Amino acid sequence: MIGLVVVSHSQALARAAVALAIELLPEQPVRVQIAAGLDENTLGTDAVAVAEAIAAADTGDGVLVLMDLGSAVLSAETALDLLDTPHTVRLCAAPLVEGLVAALAAAGGGADLEKVAGEADRALDAKRAQLGETPAPLRDSAAGPAAPEVVVAVFEVRNEHGLHARPAAELVAGLRDLDAVVTLRNATTDAGPVPAESLTRVLTLGVMPGQQLEVTASGPDAQAALARIAALTTGH
Description:
CATH topology of the largest domain: Rossmann fold
Shape: elongated
Strand order of the largest sheet: 2-1-3-4
Distance between the termini: 33 Å
Radius of gyration: 19 Å
CATH class of the largest domain: Alpha Beta
CATH superfamily of the largest domain: Phosphotransferase system, mannose-type IIA component
Number of strands: 8
């Protein structure tokens, strides 16, 4: 499983970012390490600490490093030269908070390093969509290839805050153990479809309370997927 490292000038900032991500996505079997501050009260970054965090986060599948700004990037680059043993590491330019949440969701689902990095890189798409901006085009098809025995259902979303942040994260995590290919579309605004396994893309739907969520599923657990989404979005 991919490990994550948060590099920041501030220990308080790094801890808060990790706490937020873990609160949104609890019980993820992902190693998340922090390399932040010169000490608890002094701002700065330390390449040696970053190298140690990378080594601690790596389970053998690779490590994604997220950084805040300035010397955090330089320290992360230097850390790669300080590692005693080979590690597969990707330095990611994603925004620290949004990127961490997206990366944690993808890594917790067993995605490889390239996919985890891709999810982090697209972490601002939901915010851009909310502000009326057009997200960067997807490099692959959101809906994927056509599949036989497709089931479709439409649910009215009754969550107090719609399908944002925590409920979206719960939906993605709730489908993780099912053998099903699931896509979602905001049938009210015609946004989507997007793959339900991608937190960043689910958030781009901007589903609000009272809007209609169209769910398309295929595979052995397609009906189970519909039932879980219904429970998470409608309370039934």
